[in-house]
Fold this protein.
Amino acid sequence: MDERRRVDRVSVLIQRELSEAIQRELKDPRVRFCTVSQVEVSPDLRYADVKVSVVGDKKRKRDSIAGLRSAAGFLRRVVAKRIGLRHATELRFELDNSVDQLMQIDRLLKQAGAQEERLGRDSGSDDEVIETI
């Protein structure tokens, strides 16, 4: 159990330091719209799968991931130095689509609500006609 807590603490530290390094130290304009949403570190602390949320279209998302992957060595050194790990954790970046999925679900729910409202209004007018007879 203690090992799991250590891995969780390191994940949180990497996420915080990585977010700060991306925002303040990277000069690559491709990564301007990135947010580190989740970091999962392997039990031996050698690898970290970094999920990144990117605002924009597909091209911006691809470019952002490419920019982060090209800066991975730099970011790896910065994070290792700040956290004080014996071995620098390898950072593996991937796109986090959960925000896009939530927006799609929200859009579908709104459409379903609007459609339900229209159907309710249409059936309501039939009820009024029957009641007047």
Notes: The chain is about 60% helix and 15% strand. The beta strands are 34-41, 47-54, 90-95. Residues 97-133 form one domain.
